[in-house]
Each structure stands twice: as structure tokens, then as C-alpha cells.
Amino acid sequence: DTEVTQTPKHLVMGMTNKKSLKCEQHMGHRAMYWYKQKAKKPPELMFVYSYEKLSINESVPSRFSPECPNSSLLNLHLHALQPEDSALYLCASSLGLAGQSEQFFGPGTRLTVL
Amino acid sequence: GEDVEQSLFLSVREGDSSVINCTYTDSSSTYLYWYKQEPGAGLQLLTYIFSNMDMKQDQRLTVLLNKKDKHLSLRIADTQTGDSAIYFCAETHTNAGKSTFGDGTTLTVKP
Lengths: 114, 111
Fold this sequence. Notes:
The complex is a heterodimer.
Chain A: E1 4-7, E2 10-13, E3 18-25, E4 31-37, E5 44-50, E6 53-57, E7 64-70, E8 73-79, E9 87-94, E10 103-105, E11 109-113
Parallel strand pairs in A: 2-11
Antiparallel strand pairs in A: 1-3, 3-8, 4-5, 4-9, 5-6, 7-8, 9-10, 9-11
Chain B: E1 4-6, E2 9-13, E3 18-24, E4 29-37, E5 43-50, E6 55-58, E7 61-66, E8 71-76, E9 85-93, E10 100-101, E11 105-110
Parallel strand pairs in B: 2-11
Antiparallel strand pairs in B: 1-3, 3-8, 4-5, 4-9, 6-7, 7-8, 9-10, 9-11
């Protein structure tokens, strides 16, 4: 298994909803990442987990809450989002931290906040 | 801080070679990546090069790295319409834990 999977592919939610994005990899990678990407822009890093511990939080608002239940899974819990949070959310993983090994991306979850 | 720059657009004819350029500022970069993103899709890792290499070839793709000038290029030979996409250059350095991306080059291949 050499891929990163993400569910759901598409998500539409209201500003009062609570939802979660899921990411999974079975490549034995120990670093996992969440990125946010707006249309025609590069991905922006949100969070990095290394060995299931949060190692980087790029000053992301608390309405985004990451969770790494085990080395294969990464969740992003969403609560009280704003319309400007609508974007493609990409998960990635790498064997070691980026800079030590190549980073693989999932297909993304396209999120629309109404 | 780190900065990665790319030209925004490139248009070529089918069958020609495409060359996408990227410059970066972080001299401690260790990995330099090229990703392809088609409309509505995630990022596909095309190829990468270690900073101690000058060139890497993989089928139709050739990556050239000029470390002195901090310049990276991706050459696509015999460009096809299926190569039309946004191409992102990205760099990382040891233990940074994150990649810095350029703004992406939109490649349009005309038949």
C-alpha cells in the first residue's frame, strides 16, 4: 500500500456544525501533515505530527483541532467554521520529517462552509 | 526566511519540451520536489532531487539543480495534453518538518 487516503472527498457544512476529516496511510510513515489549499494557490501547512505527537502548529485557529490516534491515522476536527475556511484540505505523510524523506499527499477533502 | 519563486504560466505545443523554472533562497535545503496538480485533485509527487545532486532523470522528466544559483528546473520531454496542470516546486531542509512551496506554474499544452 503506497498511498494516502482521505475521507470524505467532499464535505458541505454549516457554520454551527461539527465534522471531522480523516486521513490514513499504511506505509509505516511516522510524520503526518495537514495542509489547506485555496484555489490556484500553493498548499499552506497547518499541522505536523511526528511519532503521533504534535510538533508544528502554524498558528491555526482553534476551530481546527487535529488528532493523531495512532501512527496510521490523522483526523482534523472542525467546529464553528467560517465561509473563508472553504478550501481543499490535504493530508500528507513521510517516513521521517520533511527534509529527511519524501512527502506523499492524499487526494484531499474539498470543504465548503455555508 | 524561506522563499520559493516560480513563473506563473507556461504554454507549449504538444510534442515540444517544457521547462519549468524555480528559484529558492534557503541554502540549507535538502530535498527539492516537483509536484503536479490537476484540476480538483490532490498533489502528485512527480520527482525530487537531493541537494547534493546536479541532475536526475526519470523517463520524460529531467530535473536540473544549480545549487550555487539556487535554481531548479523541470524539463518535460515530448509534452502531451495530459501534462496540462499546475506544477509546484517545493523545498525542505533537514529537520524543518515542513515544505515551502512556490506559487505554482500553470502549464497549458496546445494540440
